[in-house]
Amino acid sequence: MTKNKTVLEWLEQMKELLQPDQVLWIDGSDEQLEQLRAEACKTGEMIKLNEEKLPGCYLHRTKPNDVARVEDRTFICSRKQEDAGPTNNWCDPQEMYKRLYDIARGTYKGRTMYIIPYSMGPIGSPLAKVGIEVTDSIYVVLNMAIMTRVSPKVMDVLGDSNDWVRGLHAKCDVDKEKRYICQFPEDNTIISVNSAYGGNVLLGKKCFALRIASYQGWKEGWMAEHMLILGLENPKGEIKYVAAAFPSACGKTNLAMLIPPKYLREKGYKVWTVGDDISWMRIGEDGRLYAINPENGFFGVAPGTNEKSNFNALASTKKNSIFTNVALNLEDNTVWWEGLNKNPPEHAIDWKGEPWTPDKFDKNDKSTCAAHPNSRFTAPAVNCPCLSSEFDKGAGVPISAIIFGGRRAKCAPLVYQSRDWVNGVFIGSAMASETTAAAAGAVGVVRRDPMAMLPFCGYHMGDYFQHWLDMGKRLGDKAPKIFNVNWFRTDDEGNFIWPGFGDNMRVLNWIIARCEGTADAQETAIGYVPKPEDIDLTDLDMDIDTLKSILDVDKEVWRKEAAEIEEHYKKFGDKLPKELREQLEILKANVQ
Ligand code: OXD
Ligand code: MN
Predict the structure, then answer these.
(1) DSSP assignment letter at 254
(2) 68 CB under 6 A from ligand 1?
(3) DSSP output for 136-189
(4) Relative to the CA of 198, which ligand 1 atom is closest?
């Protein structure tokens, strides 16, 4: 497959360490993948679903102790602890290599070592990067073949370069106590042991495309961000692209695949999905910021996904997809999850592999759900009905606006625009979301999640903020405009005021109009807020006073917010860029 010395040497080292019975290069061909699917069905690792209703689809269940990303077991192993910063777990690389090699040694005995050469981004694109993952899991191979571009061509593009990311995954005994997800940014290396759950083992995704790539972007002058990418087409056929970052549970996949309200569809407005999770962005020759989605599929949360909430995501899962930890509907050998529809199957097998009937469900006890709350679909991007025609083009799309957001019941208005790039970076650095009943622990607790990168930034967050500021200086007046949205303002009874979902298009249209200089705004203590009459309420059951109430900036609430941001900033010590401290002082003065 390759003559690249750096690759061959590393693979030799891995073979010696892991001691597999066999070695198999994955070429991404359907023939080879089909053999692996058959083998996985034979061993029970996967279940083939109804070929008529869900052609090419499979179900997989992970161990109950292995159902989500594990932030407390995730490490950034930079040589100096300071370089990992205050928001990451850190361990000395030599110590961690030893610990991980001791855990992984000999664990491929009796197994096959699969070697997956993959590209993050269209193969050969100047914005793409190469990775090689070795794994002992067919589930990982089949998921990586959906989520990334797996092909021998990747090795041709790499040639004899050393610019590739090494990824070692070993299932071991799926022992929670010995589970580690480790990034070595200075060595382009990822090691993941004792897990077999997607986010921990599909090493191209969070580990490479965010943790390692954010570090590479810092060193090489580009950005790897936890952002969806969306194209908004107007009736004249002009498309403007936006990138948006939200913490989890804020509807990122829904926004990425939004369907505009009927009156806008009839006028000719359309939305095109470029990506739903990760964006790699570089300054192009014309000085603008260009973005690609480095992934090739969607690894989405299943529960709550239905025809109404996200028609396009559901449509994406209808063929050649893998479902993880959803329920098996025994009536027709398909899948089911809470929120798919109102007809739970009479007879099912739940995500733990136990028989399940609807009477087992107790709404006060999450453990009685048929599907795990973090159950997933892995779906090929090509299945998405609104996939952008730019998706597979290597040049990337020019970004007009960057949008931050979070879940805030009272604080941030529906939408506001930052005063400038530096003010926008300040808004991103202070981003926060309130916990919902969906997560364990108290409801309504504010968690600061700068740029939605808290678990994904591969280096010191103070340096990361500085990198954002430096990118802004290089972009100058070609920089995207930065906005913040909040779909989650509530009334006194705790009901959401804004309808959200497709109606968010009304807000996106204002954002685009601001970028084009065709919409007005009112300046407030925190930035520019729309004039209420500039948010189109056609066909919506909402009066202008209600809209005004969610555009409102309450200075008292913001005084408290500023105090919390000050507290949050203390973590970063001297590494906090002085521009951001100045922004905080401006906010404090404005809300006095
Ligand atoms: C994801 C996440 O799975 O952000 O995309 O947790
Ligand atoms: Mn994500």
Answers:
(1) H
(2) no
(3) S-HHHHHHHHHHSEE-THHHHHHTT---EEEEEEE-TT--GGG-EEEEEGGGTE
(4) 3
Read off the pLDDT of residues 297-355 as tens digits, 9 standing for 90 and up. Answer: 999 999 999 999 999 999 999 999 999 999 999 999 999 999 999 999 999 999 999 99
| Residue 61 to residue 205: CA distance in whole angstroms | 20
Q: Which ligand is nearest to the CA of 278?
A: 2
CA–centroid distance, residue 70 to ligand 2 (Å): 14
List the single range of 91-105, 220-234, 369-383, 429-443 with lowest mean pLDDT.
429-443
| Index of the ligand 1 atom closest to the CA of residue 452 | 4
CA of 111 to the centre of ligand 2 (A): 31
Q: Could you tell me if the CB of 277 is within 6 A of ligand 1?
A: yes
Give helix 461-475 / helix 421-429 axis angle, nearest 10°.
Answer: 160
What is the spatial distance between Cα 226 and Cα 205, in angstroms, rounded to a whole number? 10
Nearest Cα neighbor of 312 from 398, 267, 377 is 377
**Would you say 437 and 278 are in contact if contact means Cβ atoms under 8 Å apart?**
no
Mutation to probe ligand 1, out of 228, 248, 252 (largest number of atoms < 8 A from CB): 248
Phi and psi of 248, rounded to 5°?
-65, 160
Q: Using an 8 Å Cβ cutoff, are 163 and 130 in contact?
A: yes
The answer to whether 107 and 100 are in contact (CB under 8 A) is: no
Q: Are 119 and 154 a contacting pair, CB within 8 Å?
A: yes
> In angstroms, rounded to a whole number, what is the distance separating the alpha carbons of residues 552 and 323?
42
What tens digit of pLDDT does each residue of 532-584 get?
A: 999 999 999 999 999 999 999 999 999 999 999 999 999 999 999 999 999 99
Q: Which residues contact 343 (CB under 8 A, 6 or more apart)?
A: none
Q: 514 in helix, strand or coil?
A: helix
pLDDT at 233 over 80: yes
Is residue 151 within 8 Å of 28, Cβ to Cβ? Answer: yes
Which residue lies with its CA nearest to atom 3 of ligand 1?
A: 199
Residue 577 near ligand 1, beta carbon < 6 Å = no
List CB contacts of 191: < 8 A, sequence separation 6 or more. 96, 97, 100, 104, 167, 168, 169, 180, 182, 184
Q: How close is the Cα of 541 to the center of ligand 1, in Å? A: 33
The residues assigned a catalytic role are 250
Distance of CA 551 to the CA centre of its chain: 28
CB atoms within 10 A of CB 58: 22
Cβ–ligand 1 distance for 248 under 6 Å, the answer: yes
3-state secondary structure of 237: coil
Of ligand 1's atoms, which has the minimum distance to the CA of residue 226?
Answer: 4
Q: Is the dihedral of CA 568, 574, 575, 577 positive or negative?
A: positive
Half-sphere exposure of 575 (CA within 13 A, CB side): 16
Q: How far apart are CA 135 and CA 384, in angstroms?
A: 28
State the sign of the Cα–Cα–Cα–Cα dihedral 301, 304, 307, 308: negative
DSSP H or E segment with residue 215: helix 213-220
SS3 470: helix
CA gap 194, 200 in Å, rounded: 9
Radius of gyration of the chain (CA): 24
- Extract the tokens encoding 244: 């948006």
